[in-house]
Protein 1
Amino acid sequence: MEEHKLIERLMKETNISYEDAEIALERSDWDVLDAVIYLEEKGKIQRPSSNIFYTNENNRNYNSNEIINIQQQKNKQNRENREHNFEGFFVKVCKLIDICNNIFLEIGKENKTFLRIPITVIFVLVIFAFWIFIPLYILGLFFDIDFSLSGQRIEINKINRVLKTISLNVKRVKDKFKKGY
């Protein structure tokens, strides 16, 4: 009984005779898609002119204007998504700059602060003038200048510990160098 329904469905979809539908289904082990491909190869039915294939029974015949409108809607949605992503990126950059403006690098000696600079300025100096900034930082360490961060963030304590460790190691190296001479 089910074979009869498959034959009728294939006849209805492809406008072929009962015998042709039955032969095509038998040769394709009762697979409708394989039967359609077999009929196309034998020239019994014409291949579709477009590359639109449907995987469900709720297929809809689109005319060219509808396809163009659908493509335009997709393009518009993609453009809006890109603009939204760019806006999200811009918001994140602004938040990062705001956070960096609220964290300061303090440069001092013997518990006296000489200079307090926002981290944003330090990043700009490191990026554009690293050949000046990094040697000045190392030179400052050898002259017992302390570098620390201040601000409202929790991570600052971890960074201050790292800066303190660097300072202590430089002092040890300097003391060993003095003892050597």
Note: The two ends are 105 Å apart (CA to CA).
Protein 2
Amino acid sequence: MPFRPVRLLLPIVLVTVLLVPLAGSATPLQQLSGRTMGTTWSVTVAAAPGRLPALREGVQARLDEVVAQMSTWEPDSDLSRYNRAPAGSWHPLPAPAAQVVDAALALARESAGAFDPTVGPLVDAWGYGPAGPQAAAPPPEALAAARARVGWQHLRLLPDGRLWQPGGVNVDLSAIAKGYGVDRVAEWLLGAGVESFLVEVGGELRGHGRKPDGSPWRVAVERPAPDDSRLDDVQLVVRLDGLAVATSGDYRHRDERDGRSVSHIIDPRTGAPVTHALAAVTVLHPQAMQADALATTLQVLGPRQGLEWARTRGLAALLVWHEGEGFGSAMTPAFAGHVVQP
């Protein structure tokens, strides 16, 4: 698998694409699909059937490039080679990978470390990496060793794309690269002359243009059921009018450690799983890369701090938290502006 599966968790708030058949449309909607990053991708486009093979090949090629540059599961990727680079060395990154690292570092600074692209050793220590789950919390000495290797402040990125390897730092872009993949596909489709499409990679989506009937792309955000066994009816519908949507959460992904229920979400600042009641976050943003990373950031910050952090920055975010036997939720004004009124 090319990216850490723990960083590709299914969210509590599931997003469903709403497509209405368009009888008699001159340019009917067509769907392409494939696999990437340990998950699936799909693209819905308004294009003539004859263009589909070339479009599918182009989409897959763009996503394969992201994996070749930014996967921590592929030993020959540019990022894997950086992670193995000797201490005290500068490692050149391709321009797209450098762009993603730069965005990750900017968000790490903005969030005071709630988002941290070097968190991988802590993910491994808690049993959410390639070695698989474990029944108990990591021993103090293992946790201390992992924390010593974590810290976005260790990284230095030069304008020419060279990244400093101080020694032992392991960069993991799984919380942002999937969104970048969505953006990369969207930009390629625009360059290929496709003006109406919906791109989805592992649950992250970005819509552009209008459907052939003139309506915007819409997605449904579903309400979680209190009994943790199913999803209830649609909670709300949002428009993706030139926007992307990303989710983060651990509603269906918690483990038992030492007799306690433990979240998969690791707080890089404490070195431990989060303990707050936030169950899921949905973020809207013009860039899927930003929506992806911001959803993870808010998930670490928690319901109260996360909501305030999002509001003060004008972010479009929906937060859902555990409340008694059910769930509470709140959205920022920017998110409310994209909700389709019933």
Note: Residues 1-25+85-169+211-342 form a domain with the T-fold fold (CATH 3.10.520.10).
Protein 3
Amino acid sequence: MTYTDHAHRPAHLGQRQSPARSSTKPDAPFICPACRREVVLHQGLIRIHHFAHKARVACRLGAGETEDHLLTKLSLFDALRKESNVQDVELEKNFGTAVADVFAVISGVPVAVEMQRSALAVSEITARTAEYHRLGIAVLWIDIPNGDLGLSRYSPAAWERWCHAAYFGRVYYWAGGQTLRPVHYAPLALRVEETSWRTNGQIHSGGGYYRRSRRWRTPRPGQPVLLLKGFQRSLRHAWTGGSVHGPECTLFIDRQPNWWDQ
């Protein structure tokens, strides 16, 4: 199912922004802020109020947003707009070349918040991050948890590994409202058991050592941090680390010291 909370009304109707939960069907027509096509308001007793495209279109906002994703955006949006040091809070802010899930000016810093659960392509996250930098906007990528990060081992997706490298060894997971949980992924050593075998009358042996896993990591959570109080803008130069490459970018990163080194 495709969900989006935010739509625009044509300028000649006198109202530019229209959240689904405070709109009514007589307010139509509604326009998608990304592709500028008309969308339809859906309101019911079970599903969250949302807009949907009339037909399948090549639009980022119509690409299969889940209800969990929309509820998470709304929760963060509601938390931010209550704060005195936050201005210009907007859902699905369209910059022409990028659409931020949530945009806000936090203590004077323009911030684009991108909330993800799907397996986002690394090429796309790289391109969006570079574009926000070009626009002079700090970007914060947040993952919506889909599993237990308290396990002894975890296999990060490619885009999570990219974020881990970009944010100097941490990935941010949403914990409710404006509260985020940073997680560091430490290397995980796997035991290769010792074995022996006989070939042509000779006994051979192998194993009996640990090797670093390519797939698995050990999650090490830091202290939960508030988006409005624990983050700052940080310029990062282009980098390359192994198979991970990143452009010059402006990040919104927490001030917490490296807890995994303590």
Note: Residues 66-262 form one domain.
